[in-house]
Amino acid sequence: MVVRFRPIVTSGFALGLLLSDGIASSLAAEIELPAVTVQGQDESGYRSETASVGGFDDAPLLDTPASISVINAALIKDQQARLLSEVLRNDASVGDSYAPIGYYENFVVRGFSLNAASSYKINGRTITGEQNVALENKQQVEVLKGLAGLQSGISEPSGVINYVTKRPEDVRSVTVSSDDRGSGYIATDVGGWFGSEQQFGLRANVAHEDLNTYVEHANGQRDFVSLAFDWNISPDAVLQLDAEYQSKQQRSVPGYQLLGGTTVPDDASPKKLLGHQSGSRQVGIDALNLNGKFEYRFSDQWKGSVSAARSKVVIDDYSSFAWGGATSGVGNTFTSEGNYDIYDYRSPDDTRRDDEVQAAMTGLFDTGGLGHELTFGTSAFRRVIDKRKPVNEWIGSGNINADAPTFTPTDVALNDSHRNLDSRQYGLFVSDRIRLNEHWQTILGGREVRLDEQAFDSNGTLARHTRQYVFLPQASLIYKPIENVSLYTSYSKGLSLGGTAPWFAGNADETLAPTTSRQIEAGVKYDWRRISFAAAVFQTRQAYQYARPDGAGAFTYVQQGEQKNTGLELSANGWATQRLQIATSVAAIRARVSGSGTPEYEGHQAINVPTLRASVYADYALPWVNGLAVLGGVQYSAKKNANRTGNVEVGDYAVVNVGSRYTTKVDGYETVFRLSVDNLFDKRYWRDAGEYMGDDYLFQGAPLTARLSASVNF
Length: 714
Known about the structure:
Layout: E1 2-5, E2 8-10, H1 12-19, E3 31-33, E4 36-39, E5 50-51, E6 59-60, E7 67-72, H2 73-78, H3 84-88, E8 94-96, E9 107-109, E10 112-113, E11 120-122, E12 125-126, E13 138-145, H4 149-152, E14 159-165, E15 171-179, E16 184-194, E17 200-211, E18 220-234, E19 237-250, E20 283-297, E21 302-323, E22 339-367, E23 370-388, E24 391-399, E25 417-435, E26 440-456, E27 462-479, E28 485-496, E29 515-528, E30 531-551, E31 554-575, E32 580-594, E33 612-621, E34 628-637, E35 640-641, E36 649-650, E37 653-666, E38 669-678, E39 686-688, E40 691-692, E41 695-696, E42 699-700, E43 705-713
Parallel strand pairs: 11-14
Antiparallel strand pairs: 1-4, 2-3, 5-6, 7-13, 8-9, 9-10, 11-12, 13-14, 15-16, 15-43, 16-17, 17-18, 18-19, 19-20, 20-21, 21-22, 22-23, 22-24, 23-25, 25-26, 26-27, 27-28, 28-29, 29-30, 30-31, 31-32, 32-33, 33-34, 34-37, 35-36, 37-38, 38-43, 39-42, 40-41
């Protein structure tokens, strides 16, 4: 940071006052002091001290009894991240779980999968997760690891991802970028305040991207636009509105499957598009996210808010899909020789819509010497899915070591669209942070959830109608021996939506009833100077959902048994020295299944969950070149089981990333050049060995990728 003081002109009398000792009581001449340049270190960086995902409002991480990581705009920009997977690689507790190129991404947190129906939010309101949310208008991405029943109602035990949007400010910037494959990217960020009292604020983000991916035949494009509006109606009333729309078209890239169900493919190229058909269509995903919040301060102690949101995604899902070797009698794996079947998959107009509204009150008061921060309110949420029974027709076969032949596409007519799910939940919640004294706090709360859910079969016939009342309690105890250290322990109960049976199960497409989960956690957080340290241990239990083998090739999708994940998380974020900042995390997880009724699925690590994962990223400002910093990091993952029986695994890997950032002025405008090189040593590895709709898939990591960008601030 450079601070420049203007030349100061002062009279002798003023100088005498400044000297304050009576010397030079009057001077006839004026004294002009020369301009002074002071070099200092910018206080901003990768460290964030607050997050809103852990409660109902923005709160210090030190006082939040949960494991939360925050990846802010500074780190997102330096890593030139465009996808959530590129953001979440900074958190060792998070891994990919069926996140193919050209489709929407899925993730595992603490060994449990996130759910597209409930695990993703923008500004605290739920969005449809079947989209790759744009990052151009996001101030930070918050990851709450673990149960969030009090905050979110129905949600997965894995946690919640919350995107926080940028608010209006005086900004005018343009960013252009390209990579070693010739991709093109341009984005603008424009904002400001206006009105007689500067009470209105606007911020607009626009981006276009030509996607030249490393996978052959899988290029695409993306367009994005967003608008944020703030209105300071009065000193006590604020209205905030956000709207964003994104359209993306790109071929979906199928994953590999185990050869003969027992072997990981050798020498597989990450650049090959399995099952490619020249006439196949791209997958189109159009996403609209709207949300708004009105907040009114009744007094210095009490405030209220009303927020609402709508999220709608329409997916035109087309794919020449490589799957199994059914024609060779192998089933849902490739053959031992690497042969696979090719299916012409079509499911256009796949529509998901979420609507949510919430009203809350927060107040501060004392009773009997105890300080209270009380929050209570109500919420309503509805999710509907309208889709067709997909066309999924076999058209031919291919081999992983050769380009697929061209086959005649299917002429089977599309099925009619129908309601697949109509899920409504209503909640009453209360949370009270009680300050017992200067060292001890407790947070007690809960949410009463009323679920009214209708699930329909593939023909649109009502298959299940669930009405359920569940109380989700949460209790935490916080001890702060000194101001910058906190120790906490917490207990919580959650309710998760039931899974959907895969197509090969006897109850195909059936959505099971919701299931409960429980979690205990303990942790410590320490803020030292400009760096934050955190450690947490946890144990989470959830009903096990899977396609149970019934013999003779038959399966039934059931909730039977339990998966218990126990783990340790460590992290450090902030300035380690005046010139070095770091963002690091480590996670060790033991994930086991018991009571499933299928012994071969038990007694070993769960599928796609490594026992150890780590992430280190650093930024060092070079002392001999003002404005130049070198960046770099490593992502490490231990080996992972690639199927539920645990007899096949993919190896461990370490991926090295490097980069640089140079800040200067071009024609008087601040300009930032960024260079990033991911997978510096072109490591071949399996980043994802997850499961989707009952089938196991393997996805390789990206090869060496170099990206260069320039951002100009006007």
